[in-house]
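Entry for the shared binder. Reason: the reviewer on the internal report wants the predicted structure included alongside the sequence.
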Amino acid sequence: MTRDYSETNIYIIGAGIAGTMLSREIREKGIFGNVIAFLDDDSNKIGKLINGIPVLGPIRQIARLVRIAAKDEALIAIPSATPESLRDIYSVLKDAGFSRIRLLPNIAQILEGKAHLIQTREINPQDLLGRAPVAISLKESLSYLRGKRVLITGAGGSIGSELARQLLSGGAERIYLFGHGENSIYQIDRELRLLQEGGVGEKATIVPVIGELKDREYMRFIIRQLKCDVVFHAAAYKHVPLMEANPVAVIENNVFGTVNLLDACLEAGVKRFVLISTDKAVDPVSIYGASKMLCEKLVLDAARRSSGASGAKTVKESYMFVRFGNVLGSRGSILPLFIDQIKKGGPVTVTDRDMVRFFMTIPEACSLVLKTGGVGINGESYLLDMGEPVRIYEVAEQLIRFMGYEPGTDIPISIIGRRPGERLDEPLWGKAEKPVQTSYPRILRLESKTPTSESPLRDFIASLRSYCFFDPSDAGKYRDRAALIRTLTASIPSLGEIRHE
């Protein structure tokens, strides 16, 4: 049944540029409801009219006086709001009786004054649990992509899809959405086209590509055909406990998929390559972490190969990786899991009361990755400044309260113990690495004391191949997970530290 918006009253929280742009768009389209008032705390705006709409305030006082009907909506249009202020505004609006609260996210396109109604969405927990993101001008950061052909692997995933959304503002000629899951690629392809129709970004040609990284000849073919200038490699199997149970699959997909992609990019002359990496690659204790550590080394090896035997850094090619910790709300992460557990009445399962993780929102991580891709140097390693670590137990408590319950009283929290491949904390850099400040906010460069020579790395990767791909001359190794783990552990000692056999 089609919803009737004729009686929907919309209150826009924030009478700044973004709010006034949204009010104008709502009035012009005339199908989403009627903007009744702006709510704002700025004494210079309170009592005035903007586009014929009154500005009321302060927000906390006036919200208690507004008579809220069932259809009424609140639209928060303060892109610069911190999570702390959003929590306060959200609490006020919920107490006032608003059942539907939408948000104009804090992203660089909006900070540049381009707000569109299609960018609004339901407010969610990660909006309130994160830290204040750094303001990055996407138009400036993405200037290196203007007129270029950009490919994103894993484009249907949490990171890949957000990279694609932000790339709409970069002036790229084409955006290739590469993935092996047709549903996720269909969804992001459709979303980007709707955003473009809603006036977001520039008119890049969007090209969905269904393919398989593990198919070496296909990757050589497709990269050559697409004539990519830049590749953001976000595709990976990444669910730690699941990958512990499927070690051959994670090495086959993550490691050999990256080998195939890098070789294809070097052969086709791709100028810029950015690997999305993880803190789990540091002294890895999981198969997933080990796979990403090998991917980091493979990218640095490709950087050496691209610049010749001397290893000299050139501006012709730039192959690098960007490492960061957990992102709030990604698929398979704790927030969606916790939300599902709360909806069914609990318990919310936490592995250890003292477990901590570094967290960053997906939009901020992607903005910084895109920035790094433009300023990064060939053969260098980069780390995003993740701020202070957060206790998972406290995240569970905050999320329970966000959803209107009291932890321990309404929704129990159960400590279930660490699972295979997990540790209490995740270091962001290893013993042989040193983070160094760059001139760009929240982007660090990693100095390595022990550069990896290419021959041992290639020999080691070659030793893993028979476990993943059938070789008649070495048939006994095929899919032998125990032997694969022994081979990995022999070269990556940290894997044996907390493994549960």
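Summary line for the report: Residues 9-123 form a domain with the Rossmann fold fold (CATH 3.40.50.720).
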